[in-house]
């Protein structure tokens, strides 16, 4: 089996069903830089209860208007090593912005980039909530 085939297979099978517990406080910390604290608490509660959806890494990066981080980025490297070692990554946490504004990746930017390097078309499990 070739390296490309192995990377493709790993990309399709490297996601957990549910976010890790520590992802929610991390999302809260990030969101507190963008939104009032009262709104942050509501968004995080909604993320905890949101149903998972799946989206491609390339689409998430475009919607968020973020650059793809290089494979040499330390956090991306860490996630790629996890996948290579058989670990599954935590789904990403997203906040849908008002129309025309970029998607907010509350937690998981490095994981999205790592997944893109494995297979840009692989679908990533996400929890997506909208702002009221």
Could you explain the architecture of this structure?
It is a single chain. With 132 residues, the protein is of the alpha+beta class. The protein has one domain: Conserved hypothetical protein from pyrococcus furiosus pfu- 392566-001, ParB domain (Alpha-Beta Complex). Helices cover 46% and strands 17% of the residues. It has helices spanning 3-12, 23-31, 37-49, 57-64, 74-84, 109-118, and strands at residues 52-56, 92-96, 104-107, 123-130. The chain has a 4-stranded mixed sheet with strand order 1-4-2-3. Helix 2 runs antiparallel to helix 3, helix 4 crosses helix 6 and helix 5 (74-84) crosses helix 6 (109-118). Residues 1-8 have low confidence and may be disordered.
Q: What keyword list fits this structure?
A:
globular, alpha+beta, Conserved hypothetical protein from pyrococcus furiosus pfu- 392566-001, ParB domain, disordered N terminus, four-stranded mixed sheet, 132 residues, 6 helices
Helix content: 40-55%
SSE order? HHHEHHEEHE
Task: Give the radius of gyration.
Answer: 15 Å
Averaging pLDDT over every residue, what do you get?
Answer: 90
């Amino acid at each position: 089996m070739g390296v490309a085939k192995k990377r493709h297979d790993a990309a399709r099978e490297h996601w957990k069903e549910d976010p890790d517990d520590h992802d929610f406080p991390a999302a809260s910390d990030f969101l507190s830089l963008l939104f009032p604290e009262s709104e942050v608490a509501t968004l995080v509660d909604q993320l905890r209860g949101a149903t998972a959806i799946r989206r491609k890494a390339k689409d998430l990066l475009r919607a968020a208007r973020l650059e793809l981080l290089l494979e040499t980025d330390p956090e991306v490297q860490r996630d790629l090593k996890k996948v290579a070692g058989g670990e599954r990554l935590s789904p990403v946490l997203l906040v849908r912005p008002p129309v025309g504004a970029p998607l907010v990746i509350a937690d998981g930017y490095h994981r999205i980039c790592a997944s893109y390097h494995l297979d840009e078309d692989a679908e990533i499990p996400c929890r997506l909530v909208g702002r009221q």
